[in-house]
Amino acid sequence: MELITNFLNKIDKYIKEESIDLDDYEIFYRGENKFYESTTPSIFREDLLKNEHNIFRELELRYPIIFDNTKTTIDKLSIMQHYRLPTRLLDFTTNPLLALYMAIDTDDYIKFCPTIKIVAVKKDKIKYYDSDTVSVFANFSKIDDSFNVKLDADYCNDNGNIKKSNSLSRMGKLGFSYLNPSKSKILEKNLKNDLGKLITKNNHDLQYLLHEIKGEKPYFQDMIWMEHLDKSVVFVKPKHNSQRIMNQAGLFALFGINNGKKENFSLEECADGEHFTLDAFKLCDFGAEATMCDNFFVDSIKKTLSTLGVTIDKVYPEIEYSSQHIKNMFSNKDEK
Question: Averaged over 107-132, what is the pLDDT?
Answer without folding.
Answer: 91
